[in-house]
Design a protein that fits this description.
mainly alpha; cell membrane; membrane; two-stranded antiparallel ribbon; transmembrane helix; Arp2/3 complex 21 kDa subunit ARPC3
């Protein structure tokens, strides 16, 4: 059995063709993440973008090395000025801003996490896929929250007053995690369903 869904869809031997295949998949994957980053779904308490859904899907479908490389390419594209970040934003300023930690290194680590588990068969069962995507989402949020907390801790940063928290880290959790829990759960479920559907199609075609 192929190690990942990408291996099942496009199998090649090692060598120059392998590099061509991996490069093509990385480009397509980065464009997929860029497209999903522009999608906003009205939700309570905040609108939901589809970025983390794309990150989890790419990581699980491609494995940890290619998944992480794809998100690194996506980050590089945005840093160089291509409008691939949410709201068609771009530039180093996004990565250095309050939400930059979610992208770098959050997206890369999240994709690597789910990709590592997928290569060990966690994408073959629904409940394991859901657990893998949950762990990947948590890994993604850790550097994002840590980076956001530094802005609350800075003397000229946003005030924690009104967040209901007493510390910079608490304020980062309140504003950078809690509003996105419902949307995060839905995206975990959707990423799980998409990859499982992909395996279903492959298994039916294989007979």
């Amino acid at each position: 059995m192929p190690a990942t869904l990408a291996d099942a869809i496009w199998t090649t031997k090692s060598g120059s063709r392998s590099w061509l295949r991996n490069g093509a998949l990385a480009v397509v994957g980065s464009l997929f993440v860029a497209a999903c980053s522009q999608i906003q779904v009205p939700m309570w308490p905040v609108p939901m973008t589809m970025q983390t859904f794309a990150v989890m899907t790419v990581g699980m479908a491609m494995g940890w090395r290619l998944g992480a490389a794809t998100l690194a390419l996506y980050t590089l594209e945005g840093a160089l000025g291509l409008p691939v970040f949410a709201g068609f934003s771009a530039g180093p300023g996004v990565l250095m801003g309050p939400t930059g930690g979610y992208i770098l290194p959050g997206f890369i680590l999240g994709a690597a996490c789910v990709g590592y588990l997928a290569e060990r068969g966690w994408d073959r069962k629904v409940w394991k896929s859901a657990v893998a995507n949950t762990l990947g989402t948590l890994v993604l949020f850790v550097p994002g929250v840590a980076w956001l907390a530094t802005f609350y801790a800075a003397a000229d940063g946003p005030s924690i007053a009104g967040t209901g928290a007493e510390t910079a880290l608490g304020a980062a959790v309140v504003t950078g995690v809690v509003p996105f829990l419902l949307g995060g759960a839905l995206k975990i479920a959707l990423a799980t369903a998409v990859v499982r559907a992909g395996w279903g199609v492959f298994n039916r075609l294989r007979g």
